[in-house]
């Protein structure tokens, strides 16, 4: 089995922190599993190499280190290197990264970009010019982004640095970054960045901003700003600050006709700050009511509702539908109320918090009820249907056998063997019905038996299906898939939704109880899953 290496794990061997790193790693694992590769976790860049490669690393990421491992024979030819996308590798020199990529492929390694499943290997780079161009463009874009960022920083700070002697400026850096005044670059304060990631993790797994503030105060974590302690409002500010994923929205001052000063937002600049939380995570957190969201193209994020086709209003049983407010706020609301029906009241439930806490509950394990009684009843019914069918089949066989040997004739009239329901109809409807049916022959009898066999056959299939669904093993298998979908590195809402649909009929969004009531296909028992829908400040 060829080996595969995760670039993420190779370049960041320290315990992966945060959802995004974990998900990226899960994607590598999934790719390896789907493509019959043996994912090797053991190989990381070598510690003694850190200082030696520092210079190189700045230009090429850990790609150069990986190449060295290949050259040293610690990575076998024919192995795979899995990276999320090429721009993760280098933000410095496109030309050099490109060359190292070629060198790695030249050594017989296949590089796979997980984001699009594209493979780069020797043959691809030789024969498919698009592969080369695409990878080059990716590198160039990454390089350009950081070059632009560097240029902007330079221009912006050059002026300020000139004035620094007479007017020391307060660094505009958010609290988890500091400005290195010599290089005019932002540096990450690692322990604080870790806290920022933690805030997002906690928030997305259902803890409200006030809960997070309380937790930090209890823990005795010193507040970052001027305050004496952690406040909910400050947590909200961080959760809503696009600077966590590197974006700044500069403003310029303008004067309107009456001479009033106003701040006009300009286009957001990406890559301005070092990224401490990935964009997806940030956007997921944006249902926060107090946040202003992100302006511009980056703000649109496709939402697929994991409860799609299942979510129900607890009051009127209408489907809960998606409602967008602004560009980053996603809500669920009763479809009837949304369309103005008077029968139901309009309540909007912040979607991402619901999603996050529901996924959390699934990951923690759902106790899906199994009805042993119902299972037994169905099994008894199945046994009866099977016996009936067997009986009809052998009766039919006997009749045909008897006709074949001449003991009976197809046209022979049988009076007594009308099925019970026909007799009932004849009694009720009298002669008219008798005419319709006419005298009953053995041929009719055989046709009747055929019908019964067919009816039993369908019934057996249906019962087997129901029993299969009820059997703990079958339910367990479906639950496993649901959990796997909840644990996936990158949530695939469709996959999760399909898994949920395989076991559930409905998911009632019980907003008054902060719970999702799952109604199953296999049982009438309902499972109440506690979730977080409201932060403290939204009330109910
Ligand atoms: Zn409703």
Automatic annotation (TrEMBL):
The keyword Cell cycle does not apply. It holds the Pfam family Zn_ribbon_recom. Keywords: Coiled coil, DNA recombination, DNA-binding. Residues 368-402 form a coiled coil. Residues 3-164 form the Resolvase/invertase-type recombinase catalytic domain. It comes from the Bacteria. GO terms for molecular function: DNA binding; DNA strand exchange activity. PROSITE patterns: RECOMBINASE_DNA_BIND, RECOMBINASES_3. Residues 174-295 form the Recombinase domain. PANTHER family: DNA-INVERTASE FROM LAMBDOID PROPHAGE (PTHR30461), SERINE RECOMBINASE PINE-RELATED (PTHR30461:SF2). This is Recombinase family protein. It comes from Geomonas limicola.
């Amino acid at each position: 089995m060829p080996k595969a290496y995760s670039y993420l794990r190779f370049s960041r061997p320290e315990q992966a922190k945060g959802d995004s790193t974990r998900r990226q790693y899960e994607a590598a694992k999934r790719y390896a599993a789907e493509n019959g590769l043996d994912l090797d976790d053991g190989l990381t860049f070598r510690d003694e190499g850190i200082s030696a490669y520092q210079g190189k690393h700045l230009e090429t990421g850990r790609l150069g280190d990986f190449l060295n491992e290949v050259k040293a024979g610690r990575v076998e030819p024919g192995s795979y290197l899995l990276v999320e996308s090429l721009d993760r590798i280098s933000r410095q020199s496109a030309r050099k990264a490109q060359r190292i990529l070629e060198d790695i492929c030249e050594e017989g390694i296949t590089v796979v970009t997980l984001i699009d499943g594209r493979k780069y290997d020797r043959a691809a780079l030789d024969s498919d010019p698009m592969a080369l161009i695409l990878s080059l463009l990716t590198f160039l874009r990454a390089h350009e982004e950081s070059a632009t960022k560097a240029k902007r920083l330079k221009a912006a700070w050059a002026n300020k640095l000139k004035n620094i002697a007479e007017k020391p400026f307060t660094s505009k850096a958010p609290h988890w970054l500091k400005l290195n005044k010599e290089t005019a670059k932002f540096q990450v304060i690692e322990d604080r960045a870790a806290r920022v990631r933690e805030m997002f993790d906690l928030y997305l797994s259902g803890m409200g901003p006030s809960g997070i503030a309380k937790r930090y105060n209890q823990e005795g974590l010193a507040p970052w700003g001027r305050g004496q302690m952690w406040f909910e409002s400050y947590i909200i500010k961080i959760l809503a600050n696009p600077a966590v994923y590197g974006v700044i929205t500069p403003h310029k001052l303008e004067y309107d006709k009456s001479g009033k000063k106003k701040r006009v937002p300009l286009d957001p600049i990406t890559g301005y700050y070092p990224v401490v939380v990935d964009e997806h995570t940030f956007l997921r957190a944006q249902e926060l009511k107090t946040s202003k969201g992100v302006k511009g193209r980056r703000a649109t994020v496709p939402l697929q509702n994991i409860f799609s086709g299942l979510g129900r209003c607890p009051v009127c049983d209408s489907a809960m539908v998606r409602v967008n407010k602004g560009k980053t706020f996603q809500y669920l609301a009763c479809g009837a109320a949304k369309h103005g029906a008077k029968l139901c009241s309009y309540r909007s439930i912040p979607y991402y918090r619901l999603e996050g806490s529901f996924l959390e509950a699934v990951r923690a394990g759902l106790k899906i009820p199994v009805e042993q009684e119902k299972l037994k009843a169905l099994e008894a019914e199945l046994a009866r249907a099977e016996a009936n069918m067997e009986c009809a089949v052998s009766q039919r066989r006997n009749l045909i056998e008897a006709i074949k040997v001449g003991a009976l004739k197809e046209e022979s009239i049988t009076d007594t063997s009308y099925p019970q329901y026909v007799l009932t109809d004849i009694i009720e409807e009298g002669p008219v019905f008798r005419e319709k049916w006419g005298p009953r022959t053995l041929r009719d009898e055989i046709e009747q038996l055929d019908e019964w066999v067919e009816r039993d056959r369908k019934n057996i299939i249906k019962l087997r299906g129901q029993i299969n669904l009820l059997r703990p093993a079958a339910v367990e298998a479906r639950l496993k898939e649901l959990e796997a979908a909840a644990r996936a590195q990158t949530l695939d809402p469709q996959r999760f939704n399909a898994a949920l649909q395989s076991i559930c009929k409905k998911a009632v969004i019980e907003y008054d109880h902060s719970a999702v009531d799952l109604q199953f296909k296999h049982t009438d028992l309902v499972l109440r899953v506690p979730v977080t829908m409201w932060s403290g400040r939204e009330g109910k």
